[in-house]
Write a structure and sequence with these properties.
The protein is of the alpha/beta class. The protein has helices at residues 28-36, 49-58, 65-93, 110-119, 142-155, 173-182, 219-231, 246-255, 264-269, 272-288, 310-321; strands spanning 6-8, 11-13, 17-19, 41-43, 47-48, 98-103, 124-128, 162-166, 187-190, 197-200, 205-208, 236-240, 259-262, 304-305, 308-309. Involved in pyrimidine base degradation. Catalyzes physiologically the reduction of uracil to 5,6-dihydrouracil (DHU) by using NADH as a specific cosubstrate. It also catalyzes the reverse reaction and the reduction of thymine to 5,6-dihydrothymine (DHT).
Length: 323
């Protein structure tokens, strides 16, 4: 019988299926059902710095700035209190690791928040810095440095593992991952998914695109996990985006991931997807003669043979061999 246990960010997981931060994980009741369905870990719905500041800005009174400051502080503390309750209740109802999540774009608020998140019992903290860089006067490298600065600030105040969930809008994710590892990150998740824009040509207005990921989206995390795990091999990786079927779990681990974060597949197939994926992985491992995850993790990462990277040049050359 295959053993599906894995280690991610220093946490022992009973299997590699992590439910990612979303509406699926915004209540202790939902999280209990996800754990009962077999999830290996749960990332709670994110606490958004931008949302807190936006709500405070909407209530700001230009005539009474002192009152506005009070409202901002109240909103911040109220949102944080709700989030700490979610952590505590989820920990009480689930026997699997509970990972808190914060979505931020500055390094000012999170030292205060992260300390309380740890005290509430979170097993780890996942940080998202999801933003497009489109400034004309942009200084190359400043966005990457913001990640490192936030990590340093948070690490000063907490002992639990810190995970970074990165967007795919980096020229060289490997260099950033190396910097995050050097500054104490325990794991990275590749990749966070931007909301997809679309345009309604009849109403002539912007609309939301497809909110769910699709199987073809997995190619990007497979490539970069395959490359990064062969070069920065002391940090753990999880794949996110395109983990749409049970086969995707095996592919991600073969590329070098310790776990996968799943969202769209559960939305579309209910919690039953978790059991289906676990049964598939177990049966595949038995069929291939693998007793544990570590025996095939990274087996197909980017082996650099005579300077030819299998996730960069080799596949490109194979296409031309078919001509």
């Amino acid at each position: 019988m295959a053993d599906l246990k894995t280690t991610f960010a220093g946490l022992s997981l009973r299997n590699p299926i992590i439910i990612s931060s979303s509406g699926l994980t915004n209540s202790s009741g939902k999280n209990k059902k996800l754990a009962e369905a077999g999830a290996g870990a749960i990332v709670l719905k994110s606490l958004f710095e931008e949302q807190i500041l936006m709500e405070a800005e909407q209530l700001k009174d230009p005539i009474y700035p002192e009152g506005s400051d009070y409202l901002k502080e109240y909103i911040r503390e109220h949102k944080l209190s709700e989030y700490l309750t979610l952590i505590q209740e989820s920990k009480s109802s689930c026997s699997i690791p509970i990972i808190a999540s914060i979505n931020c774009y500055t390094n000012t608020e999170w030292a205060h928040f992260s300390k309380q998140i740890e005290a509430a019992g979170a097993d780890a903290l996942e940080i998202n810095v999801l933003a497009l860089q489109s400034e004309i006067q942009y200084t190359p490298g400043s966005f990457e440095q913001r990640h490192v600065d936030i990590l340093r600030q948070v690490k000063k105040h907490i002992q639990i593992p810190v995970i970074f969930k990165l967007g795919d809008n980096f020229t060289n994710p490997v260099a950033l991952i190396n910097q995050l590892y050097a500054n104490g990150a325990a794991a990275v998740v590749l990749f966070n998914r931007f909301y997809q824009p679309d345009i309604n040509i009849e109403k002539i207005e912007q609309t939301s695109g497809n909110i769910f990921s699709k199987p073809s989206d997995l190619t990007i995390p497979l490539r970069w996990i395959g490359i990064a795990s062969s070069r920065v091999d002391k940090i753990d990786y999880a794949a996110s985006g395109g983990v749409a079927n049970p086969e995707s779990v095996v592919k991600a681990i073969l590329a070098g991931a310790s776990a996968v974060e799943v969202c769209s597949a559960v939305y579309q197939n209910t919690n039953l997807f978790i059991g289906e994926a676990l049964r598939f992985v177990s049966a595949w491992m038995d069929r291939k003669g693998f007793e544990g995850i570590s025996q095939f993790k990274g087996r197909l990462n980017a082996k650099d043979v005579k300077g030819i990277n299998t996730f960069e040049r080799t596949q490109f050359l194979k296409y031309f061999e078919r001509e």
